[in-house]
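User: I want to check something. If I give you two sequences, will you return the structure for each one separately, not as a complex?

Assistant: Yes, each is folded on its own. Here is the first sequence with its structure:
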Amino acid sequence: MSNDLKQGRVRRIAAKLLLIAFGLLFGCVLAEIALRVAGYSYPEFYQPDEMRGYALRPNMEGWYRKEGAAYIHINSDGLRDREHAKTKSPDTIRIAVIGDSYPEALPVSIEETFWSVMAGNLATCNAWGKKIEVINFGVSGYGTAQELITLREHVWQYSPDIVMLAVTTNNDVSDNLRELKKTDQVPYFADRDGKLTLDDSFRVTRNFRWRQSALSRMGRWIRDHSRVIQAINEGHHGFKIWLAARRARNAPANSTQTKNAEPATEELGIDNVIYREPADPTWLDAWRVTEDLLVQMRDEVRSKGAELVVVTLSNGVQVYPDPNVRQIFMKRVGVSDLFYPDHRIHQLAVREHISVITLAPEMQAYADQNKVFLHGFRNNQGNGHWNQLGHRVAGEIIARRLCEGPLN
């Protein structure tokens, strides 16, 4: 083949590639415009954090639609809340709420969150004769370890009178142990010689250093400003959820069990093992660390002249409005009581003189009486996080308990 023919072929291929690239670029521009006109927005609300592994991004805003639908605004201090002055007014009782995705509450509006409902009801009962100000420090996925660090690094700047720790029993205990949470990207506390010791080795991992790099920050900037990239990310996330659900449906239920054998942790799922009294060393360690963290938090809160109130929340199956469904679940898990983690934390609180509110039994009674779902949205009723009604019922119960006087 002559050089002229080769050059002509190369030019034709280059022209086709250029045309394809232009078509893709033009299609992306049209898609970007269409998504913006439609109001599509799936921003990334989190960023790396040197102390806690990750945290909410200050001043980030956009729609959240993975459950429910709410327009989210993160305030200038990285809280899913309104702006709050650091200095507390003398005529105000300030309550700092610490927790995970339940107080973060992305599926609902701020006005619908349990802590907003609680604040309104507390103002009505006027339990302390002062104004009530609630500040939300909840971040999705946090365990008690990250919540203790949040208390130390962020909460005390606001001088709260009450620190309210919202405990999600189905995963907070497992989140406190590396072997159960199965990630190296967050801090942990370990019980060494009877003393809690911080393990923040995540800070030197390759993954965390990459997330802190200039190139990664550029990627986050592009994702923030491109609805097309956001759509691709959400499509990938949705596919993984669908794939996991399909595998769960197709998996044989406890196929390796004998009649008298206990279901293995892998078969039950970590979130379900929490309803059973721990027997193996890993779960015993997880509970020990969790209980030590609660006592440590009590000590630090008291040292600041404030009061710690522990609130154990509800899980979907605990308050599912059909006793038969709950019985089937308990039989599969091999338990006679869905409130084991709630009772255990309550007993610790009484023993250690920590104020405690246990929500799940009362919320179960409400769900049964009214035949309503307190967890889940749309086609996923009964699962996932609290819906608007769940938040309202929880907020009302907490406020009523606080208004009634001393807890325990």
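And separately, the second sequence with its own structure:
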Amino acid sequence: MSVYEERKEDLERYEFMMGRERGRLAVTMDCITDALVLVGQHGVYCQSARQLGKPAMDIQLITKSLTDAKELISSVLELKSRA
């Protein structure tokens, strides 16, 4: 099933509120947030042997990449709202 089918209601709601491009970016932010939650849960169980109390290095890198992607998308949403 495609993302357009899986997230149809969210896409319709956000596209109606924000326009097509910004609405799709907002749904993308939701997808990334969901991924961050899953990675965070996984990080609780996959602890680093070198850094006690921290997730394994691969989990840290995935979290950073997803957080960076959210920041970039957020900046585009902000630019579009000013225009």
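Because they were folded independently, the notes below concern the second chain alone. The helical segments are 3-6, 8-18, 20-45, 57-82. The two ends are 34 Å apart (CA to CA).
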